[in-house]
Amino acid sequence: MGRIEDTLRRTRDEGRLALVAFITAGYPEPEATPGLVRALVEGGADLVELGIPFSDPLADGATIQRASFRALEAGMTLARCLDIVREIRSREEDVPLILMGYCNPLLAMGLRPFVEGAAAAGVDGLIVVDLPPEEGAELASLCRSSGIDSILLLAPSSDETRIAAVAKQASGFIYCVSVAGVTGARRDLPSDLGAFLGRVRKHTSLPLAVGFGVSRREHVESLAGLADAAVVGSAIIDVIDAAPREEREERVRQYLQTLRGPDGARP
Questions:
Q1: What is the assigned CATH class of domain 3-260?
Q2: Which of 151, 237, 154 is nearest to 193 (CA)?
């Protein structure tokens, strides 16, 4: 059993929604990422998702685009992302680490060298936003042989054929995008989100995580009983942006505790 499966099974047994926290690797500075991950975990994150900075992140809104641009300006590369994962893994033995990115940097490194490097660094899961299941068989096979979960995305516009194709290839969990749009904190989650998740449930027994727009405690509460996990990203970067450098980690920790509610930090 891998870390992702083990963690999501544990949170299910505890009767609570898992919290997946996203930050961009190398933002605001490359050396800041490990400390911010520690703050996320201390604040209550069950899984951590690290974004691979990319020059054209089409699925991301202004907040994550800005963070990616700044990380690239600071010299972040895919190889440096793997170095950061290796450093985090040396400190965080149990927390699942997921890389999220786009095809081009992976292709530039080579799929096999990338997957082998990711596995050696301690990556548990991989999300490639712009790789559809019809074109992802090679990467999925490499990930499977290296013990890395292939986490695929579905949108509310996905039809039954696409849902079935994703369910067949995915492992770890399925990332259900709450809206037909880009990432970014939103005031409300869609009212028809439950119906979308119900359609996906018919095709898979994998856990379902909901992201894009999740930013408030009431969002997390509204997903209880519908999904298995909530993904929070842009709102965390907003917290980092607003904090003085010396207070970033504490502000992030407090924000995650707010999302978790009265129980505070992760058990």
A1: alpha beta
A2: 154
